[in-house]
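agent> call fold_tool(seq_1)
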Amino acid sequence: MNSNSPTGANEPLIRNISDTARWVAAYRAMETERPDALFHDPYARRLAGEKGAEIAEAMPFQGKTMWPFTMRTYLIDEFIRGQIQKGTDMVINLAAGLDARPYRMDLPSSLQWVEVDLPEILAYKEQILVNEKPKCALERVRLDLSDRDARKALFQQLGSRSKSALILSEGLLVYLTPENVASLASDLAMPQSFRNWILDLASPGLLKMLAKRKMGQELSKTGIPFKFAPPEGPEYFEKFGWKPVDVRSVFKAAAAHKRLPFFMRLFAFFPDTKESRIKRPWTGICLFEKQSV
């Protein structure tokens, strides 16, 4: 079956984890096509394909559900720019999916950008972008990140090639168990040159809410439910050597950039506290700095 073909009568809306990448690419395309777009991803519509558009269109209140993904992309872009200005010489994008940042962002040609993901999704992306040229030195590593020995070997090898590496794990941790996240955080702390880590984090309150909505129900049907939302919030990672240095609320950012649905704008005035990050539906983009373990 063609990867871009519409869903068959008996096929689930979201078939596998790769379909979530197509879905998010569709939202990036929708933001790009706005006259007041916060970022421009000219490759997103092609990367999403018919399948990504189909998933996005099937979600209830499409225009009211895309804002978290829009703001996640925007805030991560901002963090990446800031870290490059501070001397990052390598970006390691774990579970890179259909991210097109090496092509769409203004990046120094000397920057090393490494995408790590499953062979199928990287092959699909290479096919779509075959005639495009990245702005920096891009390489792709086909690897199942659940293979701990293989990923530790990769981290060691990449660590030896960089002086100040930035880890990016967008849309990854929420699908992992706490044990898997702890293992990954520990492994990432080992190479000396791995200095910073950008990730998106959800609250227990958000996961509880999403489990009742179509988004969470579709993912659960496929066997990829949301799992990780530590009650400690960003401080969860401190015991693995990662200190949060900047945490930005996706909700607050959406309000500031006029992406929140009208009926939600009142809630933007509520303070963003450690307690709210546990009890309320909350998601944030976090920048971590590695400390001595």
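agent> call fold_tool(seq_2)
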Amino acid sequence: MGVLQAREEYSRADVRRILRISENRLRSWEERGLCERRTEFGFADLIALKTLQKLRENRVPADRIKDSIVALREKLAGIERPLWELRIFSDGRRVAVELPNGRMEALTGQMLFNFEASSLNRVEMLPKPTQLEKAQRLRDAEQWFRRGLELEEGGAPMAEAIAAYRTALELNPEAAGAWVNLGTLSYRQGGLEEAETCYRQALRISPNYALAHFNLGNICEELDRLKEAVDHYQIAINLQSTYADAHYNLALVFERQGEPMLAAKHWRTYLKLDPASPWAGIARQQLRNLLTIMPGGRDEHTPDTAGEEPELVTNLPPR
């Protein structure tokens, strides 16, 4: 399968609905140079706008936000879109960014001591929730997750399902299933890096999540990181030996790596697990092709298909 082409998925109406802002507000941000003027927005744009929205809600002046964006690009190598790539905080006076070694004030580049950063914590801290409130947040998160599933199954615009999963994650950042589904929607939009981030978040929460390993293996395969792809497909199989799709994709990777014996092993396993699937014909053809260059002759799972038109060989995408 070729690499998917990235495309924009959010209209201005989508963005206004998701962020609950007016067209005048969005146009004002554009005119002040806080975001680019667009008719359509991508996943990264949406996250950047949500960060911008939080800064403005905390009464950070527009000029200070703009100057902070410029300063962060200059001070941090490789950072092009600070509002998307970094975690930014503010108390209304200062804008700071969270780095691996601590927090840094955006404009000056000075590191903030713990007592200085404490005022910035107020931006995201809420009163400690009671057990009852925690339980309600988890229930609400589950409802938003199920809402995302319903939107996907009902063929709703992808932006609406994404918004539902992101709401679920705001309520419960440890919802591994929501991370996986958000990653798969990002993949379908062509956002491979965003999808990889989501799958890794899911595995941070739930290291034995077979589906997350399979999906991450698929991303690695798309990006030609074949060794990583093999590792994640193999982990998925170790966790769930009957994972037919993982055997299928692993067989393809081994073929690409010039390992026909290993490829044949996984083709055979796939055909035992899912012999009637739409992909079984491809698996039989691939196994038959391998057996022509390997000792042992024909295999009971590979009937003669001479004269049949070859099918397109592709991996099975994230679920």
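agent> summarizing second result for user.
The longest strand covers residues 95-99. The longest helix spans residues 131-153.
agent> awaiting next instruction.
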